[in-house]
């Protein structure tokens, strides 16, 4: 049994909430959600106050989620104007470049002006309330400006991670019917350039074949590298920003008006456009940011995620800025120029709260303690993790070596769909257990069910559902409400199904065990096995493919591909390399397969369904644990798969 780390006096001193507070608040939040959230919604500025708090239903065929539905507000005004009015000189964003020699502090007044200018450029170029604007930018302040400029005028942003390929970007342009892109000439990461504008050019050509025309591209000059400029379509931000006014009145938005779409992978089909709306999302992001990190005025907060993922949306931009915090944006990678970079940045900017992914922790743990201990790290007060299960060894290294047992660790479990953190410790309130996300946040009612949907009580392991709505919950799949209901509410009727497995221990603590569907989590990047399979079969030499995950020391999960070739093709090393490059090109570098096994046949049932359970066991190098193979159409294929497995220890 894992040890429990009690709340230290130093953590409790000055913390916004104690354990008793947590219990009382939680109790109120689930017995009287209307009263609880109605009161806490006061942390936002409303143009027109709401009269109704919660109007939600998880009922089959009638899923509908509305919070604060008649309230009116603007997200960018909540993130900027009210802080700029009070204390415009306060730093909103600290930018730390890829190059350790480059950094900059940008005040609330300055961010507000840049956002207004960008909003005015968007308006001048014809963007209207409700239009979708696609943002494909590196980790530079302009990414935050672009999101908030959209929010200011009521346009719906769709941020696409800069690591996605032109194909993936094109798919998202088409699905969102987005005719406006904001990008940069190039990005820089770890000293290497990423050809963002060139990717956009390719994506626009592909999207046009898919029926979506992109009329305008606003380009941020980041590197000054050479890019093709199409007159009339492509505009430079640094030129246009001079030509517009520095102020722009925020558009009054209904609480349920869309704020953004963010694509995420599921177990089947193409990525889904997760839609978040304005009031509930912003409140939930702000509230969780304030309490999960126990943010205190004046502190420097750093989340190392990319704005292309939901963590960047909620915990680099919206949550921290809604709270008037100082948020650090880091353009680079943890290992450049060396494995001490993160801690050097912590010292340089006196970071108090640091939030990263287990994969980064494991990678840095592999580089030893010296790059950490070389830095002082005295400013650190709270450490957080997100994105994948954290193994107790990595948790303890983070706790002992990085935080010197001074800093509580908040292991935060949540999803793109949830908008914000759902299960997490609160620093100063929650006793910790390495590897456990501990307890639900306010208003969150997690439940465990077995395969048949039967609720499991007490200490148990099963499928993780949430019994009732919380304000940050996604509202729909963009353009496909039926898919929303089907994906999240049909497996266990009347409950939101997360796709994760979990265990609840005797103390009521939650331990996330990982996905129970065909979604992989590779270095905290979420992807569907179906997407990788369809990338593989789009190669002319591939006839069939099946992809599974296997445990990987650093990445959490590795990508294991079984590939059946077209008749007459030979499974050479060269073809293996070619397929890896092919998948990188189709999806993005982060989806590169770790293992490819050429398989003459795949194990299928007599009805033709691939038996993934068997493929997973082989990939995990557990050929002794294949279980019942008697229902296979051709049991012999398994022998070949076992004999040629790529992960043999
Ligand atoms: C996994 C990222 C264990 C989980 C915010 C979830 C975690 C998926 C944790 C969502 C955690 C996220 N412990 N697993 N603390 N946080 N996950 O949408 O499987 O990119 O379903 O959102 O990541 O990934 P997404």
From TrEMBL:
GO terms for biological process: acetyl-CoA biosynthetic process from acetate. Gene3D superfamilies: 3.30.300.30, N-terminal domain of ligase-like (3.40.50.12780). Its EC number is 6.2.1.1. Residues 80-469 form the AMP-dependent synthetase/ligase domain. Keywords: Acetylation, ATP-binding, Ligase, Magnesium, Metal-binding, Nucleotide-binding. ATP binds at residues 387-389, 411-416, 500, 515, 526. Residues 22-79 form the Acetyl-coenzyme A synthetase N-terminal domain. This is Acetyl-coenzyme A synthetase. GO terms for molecular function: acetate-CoA ligase activity; AMP binding; ATP binding; metal ion binding. Acetylated. Deacetylation by the SIR2-homolog deacetylase activates the enzyme. One of its GO terms (cellular component) is cytosol. It comes from Aureimonas endophytica. Residues 531-609 form the AMP-binding enzyme C-terminal domain.
